[in-house]
Amino acid sequence: MTEIVDPLVMNLTVFVLAIFIGYHVVWNVTPALHTPLMAVTNAVSGIIIVGAMLAAKPQEMDIGTILGLVAVTLAAINVFGGFLVTQRMLSMFKKKGK
Asked: Which three-class secondary structure state does DSSP give residue 3?
């Protein structure tokens, strides 16, 4: 007999595993790889913003819409912070004026 898994339980399981794996991946990165990882993270966050905007379409206000809006907000903050860090890093390599 095959049991059908509730989609909410499956989505929650994927979400918790993504948090767990993401935590271990990010905190075990060496400092030399931080800047390239930040660039990739900004690109991924941009993709997340597009997907979250599609999930947050205003046809009806349900949990998917609310989570989509939260994802858009958090990803936008992440992208903005990444650009600030990149600008600060690039300014360190500019020649100082006299």
From this structure: coil
List pLDDT tens digits, range 37-66: 777 777 777 787 787 777 767 677 788 778
Angle subtended by helix axes 34-55 and 63-91, to nearest 10: 150
Residue 82 neighbours by CB under 8 Å, 6+ apart: 38, 39, 41, 42, 45
Q: How many domains does the chain divide into?
A: 1
Give the structural domain span for 49.
40-91
22 falls within a domain: no
- Range 7-28 average pLDDT: 87
Q: Has residue 34 been placed in a domain?
A: no
